[in-house]
Design a protein that fits this description.
Layout (H helix, E strand, L loop, with lengths): L4 H5 L15 H11 L7 H7 L4 H13 L3 E4 L2 E4 L1 H21 L4 H10 L16
Antiparallel strand pairs: 1-2
Helix pairs in contact: 2-4
C-alpha cells in the first residue's frame, strides 16, 4: 500500500505526521477553525460545532498547537495567524490561476489523459471518474 510523501519523510524520524484528512478529528477541528478564522472558540463550542468525540477535542487542539496550526489564549482557540495567511494565499493563488486560464474543462482533462505519461490515479479511460 502506498504512503504519502510526508509519511515517507518521517520513516526514520520520531516526528509524528499531522493528518488533516476530512475524516479525522484533527482535520475536522482544523477546517472548522480555518473556516472561522476571524473568531476564537472555547473547547465546548468546538465540540458543539464539529462532529468529534468531546474527550478528543482538548488533546487534538494541543497537538495542532504543537504543529503551529492553532493558538490559544485563556480558554479560547483559533487558527494560527500564520496558518490562516498561508491557507488564504493558497486559495487566492488557485482562484487567480483559474481566473487567468479559466481552469480546465472535463474535455481538456480527458484529452490530456489520452496522452499522459503519468495519468491521474483514479481516472479511467472512458473519460469518467472511477467510483
Amino acid at each position: 500500500m502506498p504512503i504519502t510523501e510526508d509519511e515517507f519523510r518521517t520513516i526514520d524520524d520520531d516526528t509524528p505526521v499531522v493528518d488533516l484528512g476530512a475524516d479525522t478529528t484533527q482535520g475536522r477541528i482544523y477546517r472548522f477553525l480555518l473556516e472561522n478564522a476571524n473568531r476564537a472558540f472555547r473547547q465546548r463550542e468546538i465540540v458543539g460545532s464539529v462532529n468529534v468525540p468531546q474527550g478528543s477535542v482538548g488533546p487534538t487542539l494541543k497537538r495542532l498547537e504543537e504543529y503551529g496550526l492553532v493558538e490559544h489564549r485563556g480558554r479560547y482557540w483559533k487558527i494560527a495567524d500564520a496558518e490562516h495567511a498561508t491557507a488564504s494565499a493558497g486559495l487566492l493563488g488557485a482562484a487567480s490561476a483559474d481566473e487567468i486560464d479559466g481552469g480546465f474543462s472535463d474535455e481538456e482533462v480527458d484529452e490530456w489523459m489520452e496522452t499522459a505519461v503519468e495519468p491521474i490515479d483514479g481516472h479511467d479511460d472512458d473519460g469518467g471518474e472511477e467510483a
